[in-house]
Write a structure and sequence with these properties.
The chain is built from eleven helices and ten strands. The chain is an alpha+beta fold. The longest helix is centred in the C-terminal third of the chain and has 51 residues.
Length: about 300
Amino acid sequence: MSFSSSAKEDLVKIRLKTREQRLAQLAGLVHTCGALTIGRGRGASFTTETPAVGRHIVSLATALYELEPTIELSERERRRPLTVVSLMGDVAERMLGEVGLLLVEDGIYRIGETVPEPLLSDEESVRAFLRGAFLGSGSCSNPYRGYHLEIVARSAAFADQLRARIGAFETEAKIMLRREKPVVYLKGDDVSSFLALIGASGSALKFESARAERDFRNYLNRTTNCETANIEKTVYASGEQCGAIELIEEHMGLNRLPATLYEAAMLRLNHPDATLQELADLAEIGKSGMNHRLARLVRIAKEIRHG
């Protein structure tokens, strides 16, 4: 099961305490995965990839209205079937009007693009609305692969409404276009904040846990890469220094070096794998002092090579 499906199955279990909350959540669902249908009167159909969401829509709508629900599977080639819910009945038109999908002005019907603001009059209703929107067309990446959550909107007006309502909880959402459809999305810390906001506390904790584990692995990789680079640098420097010391021994003898350089040369020859700091500790001098002595030996070797 995907991370998104798991989060949605947790969300549909949240108990809604008031009619206002149920209506706000249904409004979020209608405006993301619902559509107006015209047959035996006006009604609504919903399409979702998560069967639990389909069952939740039926439960939610029939608790609010006396509707005639049907639920069926729509097969798709090489992919999981879709769950299709239809809600018909004498009060279906009233339901669509109350959630803002079907508007009537001077006897003329038109499709509404946003949820009526009176449905979002208190904090819990707003949370329910955002939860419904995520259940309808939301998805969240597996935190082991990235930190991205998005809700596909059907209009720019609805995307703006979503972003504004999310922003009221100090969680930053942005909007992008994908195939000419507006998509409200969140990144990084805002993903777990949003999941917690809509009540997916378990998923938010899983997200943070996976994110912490992923960040720690990245830290270990960076540390290992850094240590590997340092080892390679030490091996290269040691090889260059030992080569220089051997050249000096061959052409002039190490005993002709000043005492400090002679000591540095013998330490390097006796400890070819030691780091600069380790050689400095053995000589009881500073790291920069040891570096200066070894660099001087390399310069002397270069002078010998070039006559």
